[in-house]
């Protein structure tokens, strides 16, 4: 897939019919149905992640008849799928309507029957490489893996994965998630493995686990889920996370402490997040309105404002739909030109290696 770049990139009768029916609804019908439902339940959408705070606010302004019920903002992709499983017979407020998950979790959600198909009105503008042909999940945005560094505490900012093993970084390096459940953390391990020359997939997972085993043995790894607060407090002076999260943390802290964001030139990795509607959504019409909103010009520009590159980025730029101030605020293009977009199969193989091997190989209980 290449969004800012130029990326090359057994269904039942009931499912086929639902695709057709879902796509055939008009906006007026969706709005009327959503009014009757009165609520949308999201999960795992921190307000400082990819501009979601403003995106949710604009959705509320557009559809004031809907209450947005936000579940567990810090959940990982695996947690989102578990929330659907655990609440499939529950139509109450703990049942998510929509999910935002790493690309490798898309096929799993479809195979388990956890999501339902819906093709948004701009379906043709979403690159084929990041969407399920039947509409079960579809990519909204991507970023690249980076290091966010508290320069009050770190004199020499690391620029490559191998730098993190240096003794000067003792007790300073953390992942922004649990690598047994978080897509962001799992792909952080993939990036580390690729930096050591491993091919994306099982090999990158195994090489990445070995890297983190060494990092942990050296005393450099901190088994804490890193975020802006832990960066500022000094608990995790070096955070491994998506560039848009790192840049948002920098902005949130506003120089107290100063934060520098770097993208490693070895193992430069891009990660796509996909959207889907729960097969058991209590509010299916509201869920579809949400999908239409986040893929609209307004929603896509909300992601860009949050430093993300989006599914419709190239098309919207060509049409003059992305404000120049948003384009000017994006990081330099060079890291994105080098970034590798792993396939669904490569991500899935890496995920299996990391999730199954983290405890036995690394042995650090991240929480």
UniProtKB/TrEMBL annotation:
Single GO BP term: thiamine transport
Keyword Electron transport: no
GO CC annotation terms, alphabetical: outer membrane-bounded periplasmic space
Gene3D superfamilies linked: Periplasmic binding protein-like II
Keywords noted in UniProt: Signal
Leader peptide range in chain numbering: 1-24
One of the Pfam families matching this protein, by short name: SBP_bac_6
Protein transport keyword on record: no
Domain of life: Bacteria
GO MF, one annotated term: thiamine binding
Protein name from the UniProt record: ABC-type Fe3+ transport system periplasmic component-like protein
Naturally occurring in which organism (per UniProt): Polymorphum gilvum (strain LMG 25793 / CGMCC 1.9160 / SL003B-26A1)
